[in-house]
Specification:
Length: about 190
Amino acid sequence: MSAITVEATAIPDVKIITPKKFGDHRGFFSEVYNRKAFEEGGIALDFVQDNHSLSAHVGTLRGLHFQSAPFAQDKLVRVPRGRILDVAVDIRKRSPTFGQHVAVELSAENWRQLLVPIGFAHGFVTLDPDTEVMYKVTSYYSAANDFGLAWDDPDLGVAWPLPPGGAVLSDKDRKHPRLRDLPKIFD
């Protein structure tokens, strides 16, 4: 019996991974990442850094972010507390799914993880207060290679579930270009 299940999404390179969770009267135990189990599931990546964020307010939107080569990153995203709508947008110019996205709810309850490969812009919006998001990456952070895509680009068609007050954004995330204006980073 495998320690994880791997599900395809509408964009085949983006995967939903659900680790097994074993519970009893004390709580639960789960191997949220096991290199051997991932390799058996067809995912062989070398993660080098773990990131952890807390978003206090519902509607906190982080993204859409990515890094260029030589610091491009695969990401494995999970939510140990709260809920998010996690979004991956294909920004590989020659891809048949260029400009398309996958949106998946990740939560502490459903225990799903999203694998966002290199060549995708990534972002999420919180659906619960005090949501924590953790993600592993395959390359170190590089400010010089850090880019973004406008989360609200109408050409993307992402249906962000925002509260009545709208998105809670950083100044940086208000200024990203639209897809049509994005440099050819992943050609």
